[in-house]
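In this supplementary section we document a worked example of the pipeline. Step one takes a protein sequence of length 154 as its only input; no multiple sequence alignment statistics are reported here. Step two produces a three-dimensional model, which step three serialises into structure tokens for compact storage. The input and output of this example are shown verbatim.
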Amino acid sequence: MNNPHMLRALELAAKGMTTPNPMVGAVLVKKGSVIGEGFHLYAGGPHAEVVALRKAGKKAKGADLYVNLEPCCHKGRTPPCTDAIIEAGVSRVFAGMKDPNTKVCGKGIRALKAAGIKVSIGLMMKDCEKLNEVFVKVMQTGLPFVTMKNCYIS
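The serialised model returned by step three reads:
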């Protein structure tokens, strides 16, 4: 089943040039209206969830967050998105898929639930997995998405 807010999150995610990170889009909705949206523009830059939360400001309290990938819960080049989501007072998170990165993989969901946020995983999962198929393969196998062999005959 297609959800217009998740579709928008996927559209936004596709704008990012994030390699080696996943493409992520986020949409904040309150009382049926979009109050903030964002995407991860480049590796090392602010994550989609944080961009959307900044745009929404105080209106994010009590809102629903639609994001195509489970929010991160570890500190890398940026702080954990789960901390920002909790601090903003978001009520519900709809994530398209779990993050296959072992640093996250269910831990983001657990952190949000532990803070009293309702979390739903799997909304438009196939579309979310397809968008990040390169990232998923690399995380799951450690192998590149494409292997090329060249043969030269003289």
